[in-house]
Description:
With 163 residues, the chain is mainly alpha-helical. 61% of the residues lie in helices and 0% in strands. The radius of gyration is 18 Å and the shape is elongated. The relative contact order is 0.10.
Amino acid sequence: MILLIGFVEAAFPxxxxxxxxAANNPDALSLSVMVAASQIAADPLNxxxxxxxxxxxxxxxxxxxxEFRRQVGLTPHKYQEFKRMERAMxxxxxxxxxxxxxEYVGYADFYYFSRMFKRYIGISPAGYKAAxxxxxxxxxxxxxEDGLAVFPILARKSVIGNH
Length: 163
């Protein structure tokens, strides 16, 4: 998405960025949310990515955070954490240790990482690693008999809050 926006800006110099569009246009707001979410998803390991993504938005920060949460289901910071956990899932699925996954996504304390992983993904990192092994061996991971993953952070309202 970031590359596409860069290409459009280079190809069409008179194109207006979403922050320059009319503030009361719901399509411009949705586009701004999509751009911010894409920037965060592209580089979730960057600690300043949320502030960087929100700095380029032409809306009130509190209003935009509420709208981001309404459209995405998570606040920008929690969305970044969720994307970091998805990266950790890749490390664990590839056979990496919990400690290696924690270090990769920026956690010095892998016990804290384990708690956060379980909060966002719904299973401990070791349990996820075992489930991935079962899946590679031909069985469905526990709780995914229908083939659909369930992420509890998106289903529980009590965990989702303003960051």
